[in-house]
């Protein structure tokens, strides 16, 4: 099992940037594909981005493509989400999640992941 801790959330004006971090501990970090999800107020948790264990492939929700970038640092056991050109509709609690790197399912659904962080709040003001 891997333990995940997110940080970097906060309040930012529309058009601004934030970088979220997700620090992992426990099993070897490169045993996992990593994902970021978010849960806006009153809505379901939704996929944002994912990265394979070796950083070879990345995946993004259409709503963030071109604005957000997911990256990983295996030496630091950390995955990042760089968020640029933020919009009020990006306001949500952001969660990182891990799935075994040999998992044969998808990257896009909460049930594809079996370890979750506690979340970090991102608020974008207009």
Secondary structure class reads mainly beta
Round the mean pLDDT to the nearest integer and report it.
95
Largest sheet: 7 strands, mixed
Number of strands: 11
Helix content: under 10%
Query: What is the oligomer described by this structure?
Result: single chain
Sequence stretches where pLDDT stays below 50 over 5 or more residues: none
Q: End-to-end distance, in Å?
A: 39 Å
Q: Identify the overall geometry.
A: globular
Tell me what you see in this structure.
- The chain has strands spanning 2-7, 10-13, 18-26, 32-39, 46-51, 58-60, 68-73, 78-83, 92-100, 115-116, 120-125.
- By secondary structure, the protein is mostly beta strands.
- It is globular.
- The model has no long low-confidence stretch (mean pLDDT 95).
In short:
The protein is mainly beta.
Keywords:
4-stranded antiparallel beta sheet; single chain; mainly beta; 7-stranded mixed beta sheet
Could you outline the blueprint of secondary structure elements for this entry?
Blueprint: E1 2-7, E2 10-13, E3 18-26, E4 32-39, E5 46-51, E6 58-60, E7 68-73, E8 78-83, E9 92-100, E10 115-116, E11 120-125
């Amino acid at each position: 099992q891997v333990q995940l801790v997110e940080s970097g959330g906060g309040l930012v004006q529309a058009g601004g940037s934030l970088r979220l971090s997700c620090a992992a501990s426990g099993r070897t970090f490169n045993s996992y594909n990593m994902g970021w999800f978010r849960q806006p107020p009153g809505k379901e948790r939704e996929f944002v981005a994912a990265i394979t264990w070796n950083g070879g492939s990345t995946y993004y929700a259409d709503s963030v493509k071109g604005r957000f970038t997911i990256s990983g640092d295996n030496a630091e056991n950390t995955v990042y989400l760089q968020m640029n050109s933020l919009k009020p509709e990006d306001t949500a609690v952001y969660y990182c999640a891990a799935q075994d790197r040999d998992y044969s399912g998808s990257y896009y659904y909460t049930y594809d992941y079996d370890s979750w962080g506690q979340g970090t709040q991102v608020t974008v003001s207009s």
